[in-house]
């Protein structure tokens, strides 16, 4: 289960592209050929309606379709190359892509000519549908799963509303704000330059509402609480939706959980009025976990859920929830997510579509101290795949990281991200790139001190990674293995 993919639809003329000059030139040429005044200025004042609506007042009925055919034939040479994108159009499409969304263009324009514009301007879209107008657009919007439709005309509003989509209107066409509001649009923007900020806020608001509705429907939850930004936010959201009496936090205590994470986690849960349970987990007893192949996280999450699920039942709690977010769900290599799903754990953040950035932003707005907390994966993530995970290795990693952090802090540098990777007895230090390029560059005295404290922590050898900290860097070795 997961959130539905974002699909945003756009009208074309006067929403994404400025077709007025090209349309006027083509209509003028057609009128000259036919010897008819086609009222060009009136026609371009509110582009959008189909050509037959524009031509019918000026031509006998039997001449309308031949005139449409001739207009379409003239159009490519007179209108395509000269038509620009409107301000903000490229950025609006890029914002949809940034949210991993699909882009659909639904227009009343003759489809082959619409395609010429799209191809010439390099508009990045997934589907184009032409020759649909007004409420007729609704069928296409529904078929393509469009949840937001952006247009400039009152008839674009009609299509969006008929499809049950959020109607976003821009004032780059001929319709006024008052006309668009009267038609029922949900949002009016001056132009597409305002769209990225609106979309960001809209998605955060709707996804938070979806999260609250999901949690309310659960009745009670136990949050698998690591103390990180995601599970902390989920815990706070659960308390908001259900109240502290129907929420429990549970942190598995084992060799892989740093001591430095334990007290802050307890303090956070207590600040929400939520009891924190700290059952012992024994992932080290699982052969697959100790072997530390690429699927180590599967065995870790399996152990955690095998402990928490019966504990939740004992507490009378209906569900165990993990802090998996929407980014995690598409990140590729996540065996722990599979283990949790197989054991019936729910992932409300993922299901609401909340990304890591949105979790942090919502946490900031809620005043949670974890909003900017750096990622803090378990200690076993520091051990190179294929090297056996043991309590000894985890303890020296924890000692080394604590020593390096204390050393750098004492020298006036507060590292945000720091890992000491155990690469078969080599302690490889990954730290913020700015530190690697600055005070730790080359053979600086401070760099030598860092390597010395890593060796003192129990590593026979030590080195600084010149590439700096990279989340999931151990996975690089997996991707480099031959298939």
From TrEMBL:
One Pfam family linked to the record: HAD
Name recorded for this polypeptide: HAD hydrolase-like protein
InterPro entries tied to this protein: HAD-like_sf, HAD_sf, LarE, Ni-pincer_cofactor_biosynth, PGP-like_dom2, Rossmann-like_a/b/a_fold
Lineage: superkingdom: Bacteria
